[in-house]
Amino acid sequence: MQEKILQDLWKVAQGKWESGVLPSADSLARARASLPTTLLAAGANLEAVQRHILDDLVPAFNGGSISANYYGFVTGGVTPAALFADNVVSAYDQNVQVHIPNHSIVTDVEFSALGLLADLLCLDRSVWNNGTFTTGATGSNILGLACGREYVLRQAAEKKGVQLNSVGEFGLFEVLHALGLSGVQVLSTLPHSSLVKAAGVLGIGRANVHNVCRADNPLHFDLEQLEKELVRTDKVSIVAVSAGEVNTGRFATTKEHLSQIRQLCDKYGAWLHADGAFGVFARVLNDDPEFATVKQGSEGLELVDSIAGDGHKLLNVPYDCGFFFCRHADLAVNVFQNANAAYLTAGPPDGPAIPSPLNIGMENSRRFRALPVYASLLSYGKDGYRDMLERQIRLARGIYDWIYNHPEYTALPETSSKSDLLDQTFMSVLFRAKDDELNRELSKRINDTSRMFVSGTSWDGAPATRIAISNWRVDVERDLELVTGVLAEVARR
Ligand SMILES: *Cc1c(COP(=O)(O)O)cnc(C)c1O
């Protein structure tokens, strides 16, 4: 029975998602009605539990990862290699928290996966093979701001000759007090909501995340204003780059911008973090002129201090998986050390010194979430991931092209140059309907077709709709036909 179910699940995950991208109201109602109201004293047999899950609950799932036409949020999918590995992870249930080289290979595999990921993203291993796997980019942003907070206050303490220098050790309040500072601020342009959340979690404060945008382009840093903030003596600063803004998919910087920002951060002792949840993957593109503009947006990320990225988006591994890279090898342990747990355990004499994950990230006990990453990277290689991303970009551009020419729709951000719009398009399409009434309902009407799913958002103070393409199953021709078919139909009504 169990084997049969596993085989069925494998087929589901490998095959096409046949039903709508959203569950029917009936399926949802039936699933809801099937939820127990209390825990019975006697357990049911395994087979009954399996049937309940498969027959009652699964029909009320959405096509999020399995359908190629679920374009809400940025969900990614699950590659066959990652799916296999994830089942192995559950079956063997290894705890990846302490590096004990003669007890298990898992920490070595995690370290190797991080190195392979650095290779994929063209990050020099000798600098970047530090970091860890997290539950997602939110977790990685928390790590980035936490390391930044530690670093900028250490810098400030050093300058003033103050001993109280580690937030991890002494707490934020005591360190700020000893330094005569009023706080830490985060300077960014259109940061993702999770970065603001991270500031809240870390005692920096959501209100201390500031946009320092240029008036003519909200995604680009106003360098003059940035310097004015960095020069302040009452606060220390972390600069956070939106390496992929979530509505437009566009990049905040180019290599030239980033080197200017890097210089300013060095001058004033600021930390430079990049939220590259999905955008960091633009680094897999090669020098093909077709993708030159988006590639440029990801160039220079090797200059920052820390990078947050997502595994469960463009890498197409299952939830929950993110990653964090940091160029300062010994900094994270000041923040995340677990008292009494050895930081480094020597591996084989010629092997690398691998840190115990519990000392450099938030959790102690951890899932072996690096294995699906490892498996998928081995299975696709750089070329496979490049091909996947190119298909995603081409589909996004195809959709934009169609929208730009359609009398009922407006492509966003508004521009008079279609070729400029297409050049800047990564894997997101932002648009609205010209008719206000249709526009208010646009996302809902598209989703009501259940043939594709989009996210509603807002842009320039009015409702907008976003199509985010992140699934490995993308087929440009097939999906372009489906998407434009749905959009044409919705516009006619
Ligand atoms: C999705 C996203 C996040 C948050 O990532 P989670 O995986 O949901 O934790 C952060 N930043 C950006 C730019 C994102 O797109």
UniProtKB/TrEMBL annotation:
Residues found modified as N6-(pyridoxal phosphate)lysine: 313
Keyword Transcription: no
Gene3D superfamilies per the UniProt record, alphabetical: Aspartate Aminotransferase, domain 1 (3.90.1150.10), Type I PLP-dependent aspartate aminotransferase-like (Major domain) (3.40.640.10)
Statement: the UniProt record of this protein carries the keyword Cytoplasm: no
Positions of transmembrane segments: none
Co-factor(s): pyridoxal 5'-phosphate
Keywords: Lyase, Pyridoxal phosphate
GO molecular function: carboxy-lyase activity; pyridoxal phosphate binding
This protein's GO CC annotations: cytoplasm
Any single GO BP term: carboxylic acid metabolic process
Family named by the database record: Belongs to the group II decarboxylase family.
Protein name: L-2,4-diaminobutyrate decarboxylase
Taxonomic source organism: Penicillium subrubescens
Lineage of the species this protein comes from: Eukaryota, Fungi, Dikarya, Ascomycota, Pezizomycotina
